[in-house]
Amino acid sequence: MITISFRNFDVEESHQCSLDWLLLGPAAPPRQEAFRLCGSAIPPAFISARDHVWIFFHSDASSSGQAQGFRLSYIRGKLGQASCQADEFHC
What we know:
Jelly Rolls, mainly beta, globular, Sperma_CUB_dom_sf, three-stranded antiparallel β-sheet, LRP3 isoform 1, CUB_dom, single chain
């Protein structure tokens, strides 16, 4: 299980997120369960029951100078599993 949470999110907004976007899903596209994200609203947490998540960022390389990008964090583990200790890599 993987949970992705966004701390900040500011990707150039466009009609149907056609210019800049972040694609997030449990498997590589084209998959219907993938989410295309843009704009400045912080998306809700994304939870995948699988052991991997596919993340793809696209930019049309134009800059309006306004969008700041995004920052995300993830937690990997099974439901009910205790967090890793500071000296553990996998737990």
